[in-house]
Structure formats: C-alpha cells, structure tokens
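Quarterly update from the structural biology core.
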Amino acid sequence: MNIGTASELSRLPAKTIRYYEEIGLVEPTRSGNGYRDFSETDVQRLTFLQRARNLGFSIDECRDLLSLYEDRNRASADVKALTRAKIREVERKIEELRSLKRVLATLSDACHGDNRPECPIIDDLAGETGPRDTSGKDGKS
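Predicted structure, tokenized:
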C-alpha cells in the first residue's frame, strides 16, 4: 500500500512516517518506480508507534518497545520495567508542573493588575527583588 493509505490506517501524518523510515523505525519495501510499499506489518508498527508516542514514550523508548513487541520470547517484566520508568518520569513532571503553578500563582497574586507600571511578575523575571527603578539611573553613586 502507498504512504497515503498507511497514513490513514495508522493515523500518522505522511511526514512522520517518512521520518520514522529515515531513523529506521519502519522499513517499507520500494517498488520498481521507487515508491514506498507498506505492508500490513508496517502499518501495525506505525500504529504501535503512534500509540506509544501518544503515551509519551520517546523515540528511543519506542525503539526499545518495538524490539520487545517483535520479540515473542520477551519477558513481560522488561515491558513493565519500561512502563514503570515512564510512570516515574510522568510523576516527576507532574511535581515540576505543580511547583511551577505555585510560583506562577504567587507571582500573579502579588501583582495588582492595574494601570500602574510596577509589576512583581516582571520584577521576578528580571531577577529584581524590590520595586523597579524607572528613573534610568542604576542607583550607584
């Protein structure tokens, strides 16, 4: 089948499929005229990759998962270990986002949000702790 059909079946853009081919995640055969010819197995791999990427697995993790997917003698413990590592990574990211939210909320709460130029958010982003000096002087004598 051509790349358009493989794209529809796997729900991946053709550009992504070409990229996956470029990095060796899928290897369709080529017809005499050079066009890609995707098999059902290729589409299964692409669908697998689409789902794994949607779950947050990196390209390298997908490569490992594909290797396990194709190894009928795999130990499910290996697949579970990869998934548990991804869970720990997601939990770490959630904590980072919660911390980021707390900082942003604190900054937002400190800002008057009116017509005055003073803004604790800008001050914080600029690394300033006190009110901004708008006089153009650096405060040094």
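The longest strand covers residues 29-30.
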